[in-house]
Amino acid sequence: MKKNGVKMIKINSKNVDVFYGKKQALFNINLDIEENQVTALIGPSGCGKSTFLRCLNRMNDVIDICRVKGQIIINDFDINDKSCDVVRLREKIGMVFQKPNPFPKTIYENISYGPTIHGMAQSKNEMDEIVENSLKKAALWEEVKDRLHEPGTGLSGGQQQRLCIARAISVKPEVILMDEPCSALDPIATAQIEELIDELKKDHTIIIVTHSMAQAARVSQNTGFFHLGELIEHGSTDKIFKNPENKRTQDYITGRFG
Amino acid sequence: MNKNKEKLLNSRYRAEKRFQFYGKSAIFLALLFLTIFIFKIFSTGYTAFQKTWLIVPVTFDAETMYLDENPSKEDLEDADYFDLALQTMFNLDKSATEKQQNDLKRMVSYFFEREIKRELLNDPSLIGKTKDVYLTASDDLDQVFKGNYPRDLPEDQRRVTDYQLKIFDQLVEQGRVESKFNLSFFTYPDSREAELAGIASSFMGSIFSILVCLVIAFPVAVLAAIYLEEFAPKNRFTDFIEVNINNLAAVPSIVFGLLGLGILLAVFQLPRSTPLVGGITLSLMTLPTIIIACRASLKAVPPSIREAALAMGASKMQTTMHHTVPLSMPGTLSGTIIGLAQALGETAPLILIGMVAFVNTIPGSPLDPAASLPVQIYIWAESAERGFVEKVSACIMVLLGFLIIMNLFAQIIRHKFEKKWS
């Protein structure tokens, strides 16, 4: 989205290095993410695209041996700074994982969990509203409205993933990170999720890691290509797919390796 | 070449068959031992659930009880029943010599006086009348009636005299001997007399010990496990702790008994022979078992659940308490029950802290002296009387029943609650 013809930058990463123990996984990543756009991160397995994604909501903190250097600036604030509160950060930056991972609780409880711990609803009615809206936004409401109090783990894979998306948007995050959200789903479920992503970009900035170049081409406006821990090239999806500058990008896009 | 291949294939099939045969014979052997063991216990123990009663006519003669006319309830309570009871037994053979009278008295338990008294207190109008009263037979006659006593031994090697046998046979003929369900085995405390000995004190002792053990071990172990698994940094020090928890689980239980003796009794001066001390000692033993079970089930919670919660902005503490711990509870609980079942069967540490003392009262709290079921088995197994042999087996049956119920419970918890999250 452009305001006064200027692209709004939501996330600005500067010189990001990531180490797992002594092994360096990311080298000097500089990537700007535009607001209310879908940015796809592509690249062969092990290239560091998921690692980069997990830097953005500091999920790498969970891994003991992982160290992140450099600046990641969101809303004029460096999230790697010591003063940054991880809990507040993750409220603003939601995440959807590769494998659907609903809590082994009811559908309702899955959605209400985030708003509950962040104190977003004052009453039962308010909570019902949040749950309904989140499920509607995730295009799941019609399918589950009669069984909100049944376990979320009883849904099909695609429904579970949409439940996870609904859970992520229940706390109204500014950014949603998606780590190969469709890799465990069949083509129909994948199509539903892609449609959903397009819808969600009105209210959220979306960053999606994907193995499927076709998917990147379908859903994203911007694309970054990672290889061996480096960001080789980034820019508008059109340009990356039709007219890549770098030889390696071209080879990957045309399927010569990866 | 082809022949070689065929040979190789055949030898592989044979190897598999051999292996299956070994496996099957191992299972067969295990089952055989188990069957023999259970058969032995049941065949010697089942008679303990029956008790032999002599039905003796008692004439409630006011004079023998030194009662005035129209005695009040208190008078009946305070009256002397001993002479009446003696007289009742002597009446079985009016021509008995003094020595034979002594034999007659020994045909019933020393509770006979109380049994007669209870009868009269239940119905004071019996004064002056005669009524058949059930008296507990002595353990030797009990065994004779159950057929466990070799009657063909020479008299001087028997505890039952020929005279007693003669009178007993007469009573049997008159239908004055009856075998009924042995309720007193469950309601009486231990006794030196086999016919009166019951498991009430040891059963309650076991229950109290287990409760104390649960109350102490469960929270401590679960907190330790959660901290170690979810919060503690992984370094050499925590590795060291982990190794030592595993070592602790392998420490012989008698060592914990010595610890209880040396610290709980000697230093803290806690009351000895009580389920409180027993429970604390057992909790030391159960602690590593529960910690290991709890850590294993925490580990089994898929990391994706933790990530999901963390990504929603839950703190580490919220992630643990809202998601990981509830999901690990079935495993933890069944581990706890199995740990408690182990503690229930433990004898050595309890002997060291004095729960082996002869206790003929039923404990009402963990602070009263008590025995425990396995110690009771040990005490009875040491006794020479024939009547205790069946009691040992019966007590083992009760203990086994208890253990089976606990393990069943552990299984049910595991199956019922683990279904939820696959």
Number of strands of chain B: 3
Tally of domains of chain B = 2
CATH topology of chain A: Rossmann fold
CATH class of the largest domain in chain B: Mainly Alpha
Q: Within the CATH hierarchy, at the fold level, what is the topology of the largest domain in chain B?
A: MetI-like fold
CATH class term of chain A? Alpha Beta
Short descriptors:
heterodimer; A: 258 residues; alpha/beta; Rossmann fold; six-stranded mixed beta sheet; four-stranded antiparallel beta sheet; 35% helix; B: 422 residues; mainly alpha; MetI-like fold; 2 domains; three-stranded antiparallel beta sheet; 17 helices; 3 strands; 65% helix; 5% strand; elongated
Q: Can you describe what's shown?
A:
The complex is a heterodimer of chains A (258) and B (422). The mean pLDDT of chain A is 90. In chain A, strand 9, helix 7 and strand 10 form a beta-alpha-beta unit. Chain A has 10 helices and 12 strands. In chain A, helix 3 packs parallel to helix 6, helix 4 packs across helix 6 and helix 6 packs parallel to helix 7. Chain A has one domain: Rossmann fold (3-Layer(aba) Sandwich), CATH 3.40.50.300. Chain A is of the alpha/beta class and 258 residues long. Chain A starts with a strand and ends in a 5-residue tail after the last helix. By secondary structure, chain B is mostly helical. Chain B has 2 domains: 135 residues, no CATH class; 222 residues, MetI-like (MetI-like fold). Chain B has 17 helices and 3 strands. Chain B has a 3-stranded antiparallel beta sheet with strand order 2-1-3. At the A-B interface, helix 2, helix 3 and helix 6 of A face helix 13 and helix 14 of B.
